[in-house]
Every structure is written in C-alpha cells, then in structure tokens.
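Practice record 12: protein with alpha-L-fucopyranose.
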Amino acid sequence: MRKMIKDVMTLMLPALMLAGCTRDMALPKRVLWYNQPAAYFEESLPLGNGCIGATVYGGVKTERIGLNEATLWAGGPVDTYMNPEAHKHLPAVRKAIFDGDYKKADRLVRKIQGAFSESYAPLGDLYIDMGHDSIDTAYRRELDIRKAVATTRYTVGGVAFKREVLVSHPDRVLAIRLTAGEKGALSFALRSTSQLRYTVSAEGDRLIMDGVAPVHAEPNYRGDMDNAIVYDEKNGMRFRVIVQVTETDGTVVSDGEAVRVSDATEAVLRVAIATSFNGFDKNPGTEGKDEKALAEGDLKAAGHQSYATIKKHHISDFRALFNRVKLDLRAAGGQYLPTDVRLKRYSKGEEDRDLEALYFQYGRYLMISASRPGSINMNLQGIWNPHLRPPWSSNYTTNINAEMNYWPAEVCNLSECHEPLLAFIGRLEHTGSVTAKTFFNCNGWTCCHNSDLWAMTQPVGDFGKGHPVWANWCLGGAWLATHLWEHFDFTQDTSYLAEQAYPLMKGAARFCLDWLIEDGRGHLVTAPSTSPENLYKTDKSYIGATAMGMTSDMAMIRELFDMTVKATVVLDVDEAFRSEVNAARERLYPYQIGSKGHLQEWYFDWADQDPQHRHVSHLFGVYPGHQITPETTPALSDAVKRSLDLRGDGGTGWSKAWKINLWARLADGNRAHKLLRSHLSYTSPDPSAKTRSGGTYPNLWDAHPPFQIDGNFGGTAGMAEMLLQSRNGQIILLPALPGAWPNGEVRGLRARGGFEVDLAWEDGRLLKVVIQSEKGGRCELLYDGHRIEMTLKPGKNYVWNGRS
Ligand code: FUC
C-alpha cells in the first residue's frame, strides 16, 4: 500500500507561495428547488439576515411569506431571585443520595426549581394575493444558497411571472421583486396577519402592521391550560412591520387594510421590521426601544438604493462568508431532480453524494442567515417559527441543542457567526451568578436546562412540577463556556481570550469547583446529579433521575477545567487559581468501564431505563470534548463504541447528528456515513404521518420531529469532522473518510491553532493538502498513521502533494 509519508518525520516545509490557491473556487451550483408551492412550513424556503427571518411558500393564487424577528419573544426580564431559599434544600437532597434513598432525592430535588422559560413568538405573515387561479404547466421555486435568494417562476395564460425574495444583512430589509413578462400584466394586493395582538393599516404605498407579543407563553408540552398565553400591552414586546411598494410602473392604491398594485410590469416591496427589545434586562414595554422609528430608519436607509443595488450588496455580503468553504464529493446528476424527489430517492437507498454536499452547505447557509454578529443566538428553530406555542418554546435547551446549533461555526469557517452565542454567554453570567448563589450556594455562575431571550438560568419546572431528569440539570454553564475556548482555539485571538472569554470561563469553572463535593471514596463528584434526560435503574430496581457523579457532569467539568487551565497558561495569569483547578481536576471521579464493556453513564454500573435513549451525554468526552480518542485512550474509546452499539443508531434528528460526530471522532467513517444517510431520510411534513424518528424535511430542515434546527448544524459539523479534525496542535487529515466518498475535495475548513486547510483525495487516499495560517505557527499533520511536523510562516500557503 502506498504510504503518503514513509517515516515519522519532522520537517520544515518550504514556504511555497501559491497565491489564490485556496481562494479562487468554482463553487458547484447549490440550489434547493421544487415543482410545486409549499403546502407546509417544512417545505417553505428560509431566508434571513440574523434578525429578520422569512419563509417563502411560493404560492400561485397567494404568496405567503412567514415573518419573524429574532428578538420578538414573549415575556420580559427574569426575576433572578424567584426562589432565594432553594439552596437550603441541598443538604437534605445530598443526604438522601449518600444514604442511597434515591426516591427521596428525586422528590426533594424538586424544591430546587424555578419558572419555565419564555417562548419565541411568531411575528406574522405577509400575503401577496396574485389572483392566479390556474397556471400553465411550468412552475419552479428555488433557493440558491450561494446567493441567498429565493425565486418563484410560473406562467399564467402565456405570461411569465417571477418573484425574487431576499433578506439583506447590509441593508437590513426584506426585499421582494415581482415581475411579469408582459407589460401591465402584474396586479396584486398586499395584506398581513399575525397570531399576536396586532393592527394593520394601509396608507398610500405602505402597509403597516403594529403588534405586541404576550408577556407570557406557556411551553407547548404543558398542554391546554388556563392562561397559557397572557397579554399585558404595557409590558409586552412591541413590533412594527412596514411594507412599502417601490419601483413600480403600476397604479398603487390602499384601502384601509390592503395595498393594491395594478397594471404593473414590475414592483419592488421593501419590508422593514423592528421590535422594542432593548436588552435582556430591560422591560420591552416600559423601557423598550422605539420600534416605529427603528423600522422607519431601516426603510429610509434602504430607500436610497435601487433593488438592483440592494441585491448586489446582499449577494456580495453573503458570498463573503459562504464561499469560504467548498465541498465537492464528485457526483453529479442529482441536481436535475427536484430536491424533495432527490431526498425521497436517497432515502430509498440511491446514492446522491451531491445531495450530501448540498446538505453540508445548507447548514452553513442556515447559520449565515440566522446568526450574525450583534444578533441573538439561534434558538431551537433558528429564527423561523410559525407557532404561538412553539415546540419546547423554541427556546435554548442547553443539554445539547443550544450548543449543537454552533458546532459547525468554527470548523466550517464561520467564526464570526459564533459571536451571538458567545455574547449570550456574557449575558448568562449576570443572571447565572444569582442562580449559582440562590439555587446552589456556589460562587461563579451557571445556567441550567433552559434559557431564553431574557438570559434566564435557573432550573425550570414551575417550582416543583418538572421532572428532575430534565429540570434539575445544572451544567449548562460549563458546557457553554467550552465554546469560549473553542473560539479562541480556532482564532488564536488572545485579546478576545483575555477580555471576553477567560473571565467567563473562570466564573463557570468557579461554579464547578464550588459545586463539587467528596464522594466519600476519595473523588470529587456532583450531587445532586442527573444525566440529560435518561433514567437509571438501580440494582434495587428503582428507576430514577437523581444521584451523584454522572459521567456527563464529570466530563463537562473536566473539559472546562482543561480549557481554563490552558487559558491561564496562554494569558500567563491566575497561578493560584490554575493550581486549584488542576488539583480538583485530578480528583474528579474517573471514567468507568461497565460490565457490558461500555462506558458507564452512571456512577455505579446501573442499567438504563431506556437503553436506546436519544441523549448520549456520557460520551461528551469524545465529542464535543477532547478527552477520549482512539489513539490516546484506546480502552475508553472501545468502551464508547460499545456504548454507541448498545444505544443503537436511531433517535431524534439531533441524536443522529451527534452520533455522526462521535463515530467520526472514533475514526469510523462508514458508521458515520450510515448515520448520515439515516439522518437524511425523508420525513413527511404532514403531521398526520406521525413520524417518530429523526430525519429531514423536504426543505432540508432537520426533523426531530418536529422541525428543530440543531440537527442541521450537527449534521454539517459531523461531515466536517469526517474530513478534518484538530486537537492540541495536531491536524488529522481525512480521519473518517467513508467508502461512499472515494474521491473529493474540500476547501477552507478551519483547524484549531488558527489554520485553514484544503484537502483533495482520490480512490480513498489523500492526494493533496494545502494549509495556511494567518498568524503562523507549529502544527503536526496526521494521516493514516503518519506524522509530519511543520512550522508555518504567517499568511503563506504550504502544499504537500500526496503523489510525490
Ligand atoms: C431536550 C431533548 C428533546 C428536545 C428538547 C428541545 O429536552 O431531550 O429531545 O430536543 O430538548
């Protein structure tokens, strides 16, 4: 077998200048397209600029465009002192745990709960009544994810109609251009509605919708109940939408609730949307921003430019992010089929590598559309939500979902799109330090199972009504804080580390130090502790949630401690704190291999109530953590494989996505690919189809089911992880290349240490690597058992041709 590098060697590669080598990319066409309008939300085509979200249905008689704004949430600032005495119940809970009375612990721990999170609100819908009843045969709607433009085309009576929709980040508006292929053939009426409290007025060329979100919306899983939606117009979040008709040769009239355009050949609609959100700690009613002035300002600013200019700015802004990464799996043909048809064929076992590449890039597309610096971090549905009581409140669920949303950010070269999550962590520290004190009697800060726009951090459950298996988990702060280090590790931005990341990491680590207690056998553990959202079965057959030292708690704390120590070394600060963290890290309850050869999820070798549970939090140390690898900890790595086999390959969308990442880290590309195939199995958007396991909707959104966007991001991250991994100065090339991808090329992936990597492979073997680093630095390239050490000069490309 030909080896890429004959011996383990250390060499300084010559500084080859290959100007433009990684930048001039002919990107393959990346389009989602359909032969019919969307009948369901999960068939609509999403657009966004980080703030405004739009879902385009492409209707013929009526076009529907779902509208969202990322800051439009129910509720207001959280009362952080809602349960100030909660921590007083800890000693009794701990005693029950150490006495082995887990039933009592499960009961008592409910006293350490607070209120549920608030919900992300649906803003409304913009309707364009076209009045077209029957179309000629040709119909096509598409989303070009390289340009972030959705287009609908059809003909009626021989006249071609076209609508283009985009949401511009630089110009802060949603813009729609409607055209007819015959002069004066375009007539339509504009109207809008909302499920929230709203009024609509139409004046001249403008349609204006004003409204207010509820001050409280109960989580949907609580079912029908009194006061599930509560309005208080003085204190709720206000919003304003202005739709203005411009650039038209038609006649524009308004009649109170609708604006009508007639006898036009073209028309442009500009839509500005603003809310009164003024920060997580300001009442959006009494202390809110002037949403009317904000919307007017955005419209005015965009009004100085033609649609053509807005579109040009939009595409170049979008491309600057999207074009950084290219993935070509060397397969064509599939793109000549509509996306829903392709997905169905693929689900039946057909090969479609180009669909897989499209799916990979779609995750990047969704992130650029929903998460920009300065915007709010993406929720369970990104920024796209049509429900008044959305699934799980469309909130932040920190035991996997909120984090998974950002897994591809760094490796897929969208580092700045990570910023909203990193900024959110800064807000969590404010509320989380009160939560740490009042619920856990600890210093530092933490965030429990859920959060929301208001940066709530307390355990949920409505003061005792929540099951501890989810409500009482309190390691969200530790997990989230690992993102701060990851951002540094990829960017090597030391001023960010010093000013923003490290203080927050230190606070999260402080909480963990204070939260750990002795287990009576010489180790430090968490107690009470749960393993997200699985139940154990003790040797006395008690099925419960609460105990001590769950593997996931230990893994998250270990990871945060490792990163915090590294940060103190990089910054050369806090020696005493470093020693304290190191000392605690050494005493953490270690991983245990259970009787089935698996990695124990529980402190004891207990059984799982649901052996195929969707959560795999005990495997955190493999991914997203860096504690277990096949090379450095082979026995643990084998135990993880056993655990994954016992768990099975089923699960929700995000669960399958997580397993793709885990198998990639375990260097099993074929198993990762098997999961990718299952992750990409067609899921009907029709709720009566009652699909239970995870998959992908016709618009390529992840199906939990229902729609939950985390699986998209987890899937994209997993594909990147199959091609490139990095840790501790090592860059691992094609670590989990599946047999299904024999030939291909990926450009622009990022590696920890500030590197950017292009790879090409042929017949399953590495062909060429191009690596560059803005700042320069040392790294080791690993490929198929071989190692190459190199020192890069800033800004230079280094090339190794695998054939030479
Ligand atoms: C956790 C998961 C569920 C769902 C919800 C939003 O509770 O266990 O599957 O993803 O978050």
